[in-house]
From TrEMBL:
<feature type="transmembrane region" description="Helical">
    <location>
        <begin position="131"/>
        <end position="152"/>
    </location>
</feature>
<protein>
    <submittedName>
        <fullName>DUF554 domain-containing protein</fullName>
    </submittedName>
</protein>
<feature type="transmembrane region" description="Helical">
    <location>
        <begin position="209"/>
        <end position="225"/>
    </location>
</feature>
<dbReference type="InterPro" id="IPR007563">
    <property type="entry name" value="DUF554"/>
</dbReference>
<keyword id="KW-0472">Membrane</keyword>
<feature type="transmembrane region" description="Helical">
    <location>
        <begin position="101"/>
        <end position="119"/>
    </location>
</feature>
<keyword id="KW-0812">Transmembrane</keyword>
<feature type="transmembrane region" description="Helical">
    <location>
        <begin position="158"/>
        <end position="178"/>
    </location>
</feature>
<feature type="transmembrane region" description="Helical">
    <location>
        <begin position="5"/>
        <end position="22"/>
    </location>
</feature>
<feature type="transmembrane region" description="Helical">
    <location>
        <begin position="34"/>
        <end position="51"/>
    </location>
</feature>
<feature type="transmembrane region" description="Helical">
    <location>
        <begin position="58"/>
        <end position="81"/>
    </location>
</feature>
<dbReference type="Pfam" id="PF04474">
    <property type="entry name" value="DUF554"/>
</dbReference>
<keyword id="KW-1133">Transmembrane helix</keyword>
C-alpha cells in the first residue's frame, strides 16, 4: 500500500488549508527562517541515503550520464514552460504572484527529486520513511505558501497523489528484476538528488534538480554491469 504517498498528500492538503486560514496570524519571521531549516533537513536525509551505496562507480556514472541526458532534454525548463502554458486555461481568478506560487508548489510537491525517488523507493523497498520525512517538511511549506496563495495550495495534493501513484505502480513492476546491490545504489542515487534539493532549498547551491532524475533509471543497469 502507498502509505507514504497518502501521508505526504494529506500533509500538503491540511497544511495548505491551514495556512490560508491562518494567513493573518502567521509571523513573517517564521516564513523567513523555516525554508533554511527545510533545506538542512533534506541535506540530512540525503546523507543518510548516500552512505548505503554498494558501488561508487555505478552511482557516479549514473549521476553524470543522467544529468547529461536531463540537460540535453531540458526536463526542468520544459516542465516550467508546460505549466506556464496552462495558466490561460485555468478557470481561476488569480493574480500573477499567486499563479507563480501555485506553479512553484506543483513543481515542489509533485515533481521534486525527493518526491519521485520517495515514491519509487516506497514501492520497491516498502520503506516509507523518505516520504514521511518529506510530508513533515511539505506540511509546513504548504502552511507558509497557503498564507500567500490561499486555499488553492492545499489542492495541489490532488495532482501530487496522481503522480505519486503512477510512480509507485511503475516501480512495482521493476521490483522482481532488482537485486539488493541495485536497491542500495538506487537509494544512494536518490540521496544525491535529495542532497541537491536540500542545497537548493537552503539557497546554498541552486541546480536544475529535475535534470538529474534520469540517473534513477540508469543506476539499475550500471549497477548490474559494473
Amino acid at each position: 500500500m502507498p502509505y507514504g504517498i497518502m501521508i505526504n498528500c494529506t500533509a500538503v492538503l491540511i497544511g495548505g488549508l491551514l495556512g490560508a486560514f491562518l494567513k493573518d496570524y502567521f509571523p513573517d519571521k517564521l516564513k523567513e527562517s523555516l525554508p533554511g531549516i527545510f533545506g538542512l533537513s533534506a541535506i540530512t536525509m540525503g546523507v543518510t541515503l548516500i552512505i548505503r551505496l554498494e558501488s561508487l562507480s555505478a552511482v557516479i556514472l549514473a549521476i553524470i550520464i543522467g544529468t547529461v541526458i536531463g540537460e540535453l532534454l531540458n526536463l526542468e525548463t520544459n516542465l516550467m514552460h508546460g505549466l506556464h502554458g496552462l495558466e490561460s486555461r485555468l478557470p481561476l481568478s488569480l493574480n500573477d504572484g499567486q499563479l507563480d506560487v501555485l506553479i512553484s508548489m506543483i513543481i515542489l510537491f509533485c515533481f521534486s527529486g525527493t518526491g519521485i525517488f520517495g515514491a519509487m523507493n516506497s514501492a520497491m523497498t516498502g520503506d516509507h520513511s523518505v516520504l514521511i520525512a518529506k510530508a513533515i517538511m511539505d506540511f509546513f511549506t504548504a502552511v507558509i505558501f497557503g498564507t500567500t496563495a490561499g486555499y488553492l495550495v492545499g489542492f495541489v495534493a490532488v495532482p501530487q497523489f496522481l503522480v505519486g501513484i503512477l510512480l509507485f505502480a511503475g516501480a512495482s513492476y521493476i521490483l522482481p528484476f532488482v537485486t539488493e546491490t541495485m536497491l542500495s545504489n538506487f537509494k544512494a542515487c536518490g540521496g544525491i538528488i535529495t542532497l541537491a534539493v536540500g542545497l537548493k532549498i537552503a539557497d546554498i547551491k541552486r541546480s536544475r534538480v529535475l535534470n538529474i532524475l534520469p540517473s534513477l533509471v540508469l543506476v539499475f543497469p550500471f549497477s548490474l554491469f559494473l
